[in-house]
Write a structure and sequence with these properties.
The protein is of the alpha/beta class. It is built from 17 helices and 6 strands.
């Protein structure tokens, strides 16, 4: 079989779609010659298709060969491949070729597939890609089962319900809706592609070490396309001004023993945010962030309340879909950082990247990638701004339906408790509202910071809960094809 055949004539260039339109026009009374000239189809060809003298009337097929699987069967195979991709159990080329063989055998189609290996050939796979140009071989990004299970419709809907109530409570504009997250940059870069000699088994690229030092950078941008100057967190005992040489303008630096953020550093970031945005109770802002424990301390909640900052946490393990920074910014930022780190290594042969050079390298990468279109697009594709709680379709939650864990149950789906017996007027019993209140606190009990954020977070009783005893009410039909 010729793998890369190039047509030498224009036969059949009109395509099956024009052929079907021409046949429909002839059927409706248009003269055959007129339809032939109108759609650019030879009159003899159009007449043969009209009279049914071809094997596939209405389809432009050249030569004696035709696809082994019919168009309808290939459409089902195409849809199944996309479903498995969205379920995070994508099929390899070997899987698709075996599946094509099994389909041909089960339907009883006469096929030229290899019966020894029980799979279609590589040539069939190549032609399948040509017939379905929206498919290609991709290297997938690993996604943990925790993320697959956590990103489900009940939790996402609950997040949008809380977010919608917050938007209705006050008037917000895009410049007041922010997303904040941390990322890490290392002194050891990941080398980018280079031009090298063919046939060499191993191609190397100089790095500054085997294991580097990681510096945390806190980034934030708004739905209007503006960026907050980043905050650098260095794993040091003392903070020096030289560490911020070359950093983006108005950046701040902090230190911690581990190099990661903690409760006190998040409070420092809130102060940096408040000074930059001039937020207040009369000028409120929304900050959407993940549910890290350092973001929910009493000091942070009190400061946010004083400055008119509404903290809204994302559902656990769902930032890969719901966090604008993760969706549109961090990947390009990391790629630019690696490119600039490679350039620094080439310009400084024999030297290593230390924490003193990170701000300079990061600053160049940040200015290259911090464009207004990334925040606007990130908030749009996550449905946060403009508000769109239907941005995610049922097929986007397919990965949560093929796991062994139960879907979470919302409060509306839980069975209601039996009615309590009536109490006498002398000794009134607890009402339904008093049953949801927290027990009275003692003098030694610390206030719960979650209670201070009740206006921006769902109540404890509305948290999705997995109940094994309610499997019948939450049973989800899962279909998975064992190859």
């Amino acid at each position: 079989m010729v793998r890369h055949y190039k047509k030498k004539t224009e036969r059949g260039s009109y395509g099956s779609e024009n052929l079907k339109l021409a046949l429909e026009a002839v059927k409706n009374g248009t003269p055959l010659i007129k339809a032939s000239k109108q759609f650019g189809i030879p009159a003899r060809t159009l007449r043969r298709h009209r009279d049914g003298k071809v094997q596939h009337p209405g389809t432009s097929v050249l030569g004696g060969h035709s696809p082994v699987l019919s168009e309808a069967v290939e459409k089902e195979l195409h849809d199944h491949i996309q479903f498995m991709e969205k379920s995070l159990y994508g099929l390899t080329q070997i899987d698709v070729r075996r599946l094509a063989y099994e389909i041909a055998e089960s339907v009883g189609i006469n096929h030229p597939f290899n019966k020894a290996t029980k799979m279609a050939g590589a040539d069939w796979m190549q032609q399948f890609f040509r017939r379905h140009s929206d498919l290609s071989t991709r290297i997938p990004e690993g996604t943990s089962i925790s993320r697959a299970v956590a990103f489900n419709m009940p939790k996402v809907n609950e997040f949008f319900d809380v977010y919608s109530a917050l938007l209705k409570s006050q008037t917000f504009v895009p410049s007041r809706v922010w997303n904040m997250d941390e990322t890490g940059v290392s002194t050891v870069q990941r080398p980018t592609k280079i031009v090298a000699t063919k046939g060499i088994r191993t191609v190397g690229k100089m790095t500054s070490g085997e294991r580097g030092t990681t510096v945390t950078v806190v980034c934030a941008f708004s739905a209007a396309g503006s960026y907050l100057p980043p905050m650098f967190i260095y794993p040091r005992k003392r903070m020096l001004a030289q560490l911020l040489t070359g950093a983006p303008p108005q950046s701040i630096g902090c230190k911690s023993d581990s190099g990661w953020t903690d409760a006190s550093l998040f409070l420092d970031w809130l102060k940096h945010f408040a000074s930059f945005t001039c937020c207040s109770k009369d000028n409120p802002h929304v900050v959407i962030l993940d549910g890290h424990h350092s973001h929910k301390t009493l000091a942070a909640v009190n400061f946010a309340r004083e400055k008119g900052i509404h903290l809204l946490t994302l559902p656990p393990h769902s930032t890969h879909k719901l966090q604008p920074l993760d969706v549109t910014f961090f990947k390009s930022l990391k790629s630019a950082y690696n490119r600039n780190a490679d350039s620094w290594m080439v310009a400084n042969p024999g030297k290593r990247i230390s924490v003193y050079e990170i701000a300079t390298i990061f600053g160049k990468a940040y200015l290259q990638t911090a464009t207004p279109d990334k925040p606007i697009r990130g908030f749009e594709v996550t449905g946060i701004w403009p508000y769109n709680n239907t941005i995610f379709k049922p097929e986007d939650f397919a990965a949560a339906n093929v796991t062994e864990e139960d879907m979470p149950i919302t409060r509306d789906q839980c069975p209601q408790p039996a009615a309590l017996p009536a109490q006498s007027a002398a000794s009134p019993g607890p009402t339904s509202s008093s049953l949801q209140e927290a027990p009275p606190s003692t003098g030694d009990q610390q206030p719960d910071p979650a209670a201070d954020a009740v206006s921006i977070q769902p109540a404890a009783s509305s948290e999705p809960t997995t109940l094994s005893s309610l499997q019948e009410a939450t049973e989800v039909k899962r279909t998975f094809l064992n190859l």
